[in-house]
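Final report, section 2: Outcomes. Of the targets proposed, Sucrose-phosphatase C-terminal domain-containing protein is the one most frequently requested by collaborating groups, and we therefore present its record in full.
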Amino acid sequence: SANGVTVHPWGAEQSFSDAVEALRNCYGDKQGKPFRVWIDRISGQQIHSDTWVVKFRKWEFY
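The predicted structure is given below as tokens.
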């Protein structure tokens, strides 16, 4: 949902809208350079009727 929250590995919470806004500063950061992101080992667990914890491993290739 648009009202979701991201919880970073170090415990900090950030709204989805703030997370997307923060990405605006990264636009063009890798422009002109090969860059790939691979996500695997995705698992999800419902911990409340409207709350999920999703874990994954992210790989970045430059």
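The longest strand covers residues 36-48.
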